Amino acid sequence: DDVGERALVAAINDLKQRGTTVFLITHRMNILQVVDKLLVMREGSVAMYGPRQQVLTALQQQQAPAVKKSNPNALN
Known about the structure:
This protein has helices at 2-17, 52-70; strands at 37-42, 45-51. The relative contact order is 0.10. The protein is an alpha+beta fold. The N and C termini lie far apart (33 Å).
């Protein structure tokens, strides 16, 4: 829920300020705002790793052709 998610984000930020390394597994995009680096796994292997924005941009670029193919007006 949203309350729990906000509490988790606050706790992670607190830990990061203390210099603690945090490993987080999530499918929730809102949680990604607090991470510095992303590791993307596919079929048990590392598919991508790097700074958050770089990895998110690469994922969006990979998805864009599929979205465009399924709905030609989706990205206009």
